[in-house]
Amino acid sequence: MLTLKECQDLIHVCLKEVSLPEFPSNLYEPIRYMLEPEGKRIRPALVLLGCNVFSDEVSQAIPAAIAIEVFHNFTLMHDDIMDKSLMRRNRHSVHVKWTPNIALLSGDAMVIKAYEMLAEIKGPSFFRVFSLFNETALKVCEGQQYDMDFESRTDISEEDYLHMVELKTAVLLAASLKIGALIGGADNNSADLLYEFGRNIGIAFQLQDDFLDVYANPLTFGKEKGNDIVSNKKTLLLIQALKLATGPVRDELLHWLNAECFDRNEKIERIKLIYDQLHIDELSRARVKTYHEQALAMLDKISCTTTRISELREFSDMLMNRIK
Amino acid sequence: MLTLKECQDLIHVCLKEVSLPEFPSNLYEPIRYMLEPEGKRIRPALVLLGCNVFSDEVSQAIPAAIAIEVFHNFTLMHDDIMDKSLMRRNRHSVHVKWTPNIALLSGDAMVIKAYEMLAEIKGPSFFRVFSLFNETALKVCEGQQYDMDFESRTDISEEDYLHMVELKTAVLLAASLKIGALIGGADNNSADLLYEFGRNIGIAFQLQDDFLDVYANPLTFGKEKGNDIVSNKKTLLLIQALKLATGPVRDELLHWLNAECFDRNEKIERIKLIYDQLHIDELSRARVKTYHEQALAMLDKISCTTTRISELREFSDMLMNRIK
């Protein structure tokens, strides 16, 4: 059995071997730039781990793993244009380093490259993998569209938000595991259970990310806190607060949401106090825990030896470690 | 044997049957809008005609034909963002009717939909079709990148320009025919000959389009003339003129290319006069004729009855009719 770390290392090596033409350099250079930094490579590692639950021949899942990582980076390249994000992994985004047009077209070439890699699977699982890949890719686009739509809407329900998170983040993690499982020869039921594990852990992960934006220990948290609060992002924390707040607490919350000029730190501090009054932190922790437990319950149902899934259990613990 | 017209009609019907989810509407509505107008559907019709040369079961090529039309419209949706084109088929472009972000993401969903349709082929030709589709799609991106790169370059050679036209326009026509042929069961040699026919006719078509921008009869020409001249587009006409012009003729040509303020009609008229002096019209006609003849020569080499390829011959004559 490979460990998560071993899978990630294997992906690093294989990504370096992806060959891209030299010209036109404005098309292919941004793709190289995007694939260069040693990211966490979570999704392709999950493809390999998913395969490894059912087969010792993990190498057969490498083309699909690389395809998924290239696809994921294509979505990041285009998301950065749409969200006007200037930085990505501590470097300029492609649309900043080059131009938005170049980021658009390089992204297009990148999604086609992902399909080109998928074509290398060729085994009996190809059509099921291809179909799941397409279905998932469309869902990721749907998630991004809902996320953009929500920016200008004020009536987002918990259900709406969870649906968006599922599409934008969770299904790609889920599909990575299931694609690996299919290539590894899993039966349908086991492949679906791995998918459900990935879907639940994906939602838990995003909810935890939203939680950490407010409650992380700044000494150990890698990025700036409070961005979601400053931008009024309709996370589950804000949606729950809007649902629970009444009287003067509600008035103050709405005041901060509508304020056009404010002191960044003051807004973060005041909204955090409101969240504390409403016990939003506990609600959030409970929600993350529920999804985490639902994920683990799926693993228990898979018919294989415990060692075969121990690495996935460790993976989910590692993901959830930050607020346990 | 189906006629071009019959193929086009079949495509119209099948495109209407493409099912897209209702939500998120900002993702799927632009795709419906883009596929709605009854365009010429040249590429999918070529898939069907290419198949029909080798098989009477044209219906087996329909998923690939639709995939190619959806892919082509994806490139148009993204090209319109990059080129800031406000209109497409006499209606607002998607990025104008909605927003650039929506056109970007809908385009992304559209290319995934194209692959979803390709998955329906499933026959023994699938992997060869899939591979040619990927290769061609990347070339189309390369062509668009070169076209954008050329805008800011002044050293474009005839060879550069022809290479760009081949990538941006010709290979998709060529691949449409070859994909149809592969699905229809063509042998490798015949499929390659159809590809070469398509590639040559595609280049001829684009060169003719450039020619018509200057020399079309305005009474029968569907669009505004002179746009390439006004925007200094480095078409073969301009590249040839820059190569041939000397002395005061060259000075005047450079004057118009460098002029920042000018009367549109005067610039068109004066540059046309320079082209006339340099016999650019004859050079262009000759070039179009050469590619057209090279295309027809490919058809002659295909081993099948004359009736099997008569419709392709008529198609090429129809395309070339405008300046013959």
Walk me through the structure.
The structure is a homodimer of 324-residue chains. The first copy, chain A, is an all-alpha fold. Chain A has 15 helices and two strands. Chain A has helices at 4-16, 25-35, 42-52, 62-82, 94-97, 100-118, 126-151, 158-183, 188-215, 227-230, 236-244, 247-258, 264-277, 280-301, 306-320; strands at residues 87-88, 91-92. The two termini of chain A are 27 Å apart. The model of chain A has no long low-confidence stretch (mean pLDDT 94). The interface between A and B is large, with 36 and 36 residues.
Number of structural domains of chain A: 2
Let me know the average pLDDT of chain A.
94
Q: Order of SSEs of chain A, N→C?
A: HHHHEEHHHHHHHHHHH
Q: What oligomeric state do these chains adopt?
A: homodimer
Instruction: State the strand order across the main sheet of chain A.
Output: 1-2
